[in-house]
């Protein structure tokens, strides 16, 4: 399970980094083209940069979720001992999964309603842009479960060593 966790973390981090690099390349090339005579830059640079930025952060969220490194308050987990600590971890994971399911459903509704809306980038419809949200939300929910399983197994191993 650690290999799966590590694989998901690596793949999502690499994809996110590539998207950030592509965004920076587009912005840099556009700046250079604006100063060259006869070029006005890309008309789609701003929109593509926004999409790549948001998409890369959503994909990075998968890595954060699988490593259980998301923003959380550890007070209850730190105060709990033994089975209580496991219960707190499970409750946190359940609420995270519910959040991601709600996010996926809301984004699904948004994506299905945006079928006719056309992006300023001619090759995209807004529905295609929005579909990244429910996809990454579902993958993040799955990642939360994987992270929980790894954490609980590690807790059992630590308990057996003590």
UniProtKB/TrEMBL annotation:
Pfam families assigned: DctQ
Gene Ontology molecular function: transmembrane transporter activity
Membrane-topology annotation of the record: Multi-pass membrane protein
Entry annotated with the keyword Ubl conjugation: no
Family: Belongs to the TRAP transporter small permease family.
Domain of life: Bacteria
Listed transmembrane segments: 12-36, 48-66, 87-111, 131-152
GO cellular component assignments: plasma membrane
Single GO biological process annotation from the record: C4-dicarboxylate transport
Domain Tripartite ATP-independent periplasmic transporters DctQ component: from-to ranges: 23-150
Record's subcellular location: Cell inner membrane
Keyword presence, Nuclease: no
Alphabetized InterPro entries for the sequence: DctQ (IPR055348), TRAP_DctQ (IPR007387)
Protein name stated in the entry: Tripartite ATP-independent periplasmic transporters DctQ component domain-containing protein
